[in-house]
Predict the structure.
Amino acid sequence: MHIDDAQLEQRINDEVNATGKSVQLVIEELLSAALPTLEYPHLNPTEHGHIIADSLDLSNEQSANTTLFGQVTDSADYVSNLRKASWRR
């Protein structure tokens, strides 16, 4: 890694000398502390889920012969549209 700032380079070298750690380890620790981590809450699916095909009623014969997602001809396009719609919420 090349550092153009002489003061920053000196501060890193001082930290390396003070702790006895390698330059790489000191820089990794600094970057880990400075950069945000990708943490997200785990949601309970029973509380945050929803039924995709809630209009499907199996009480009559016509619905019983209907396949779920039978209207989908291009699955990649269908999934892409679902993702776009979910991000707009």
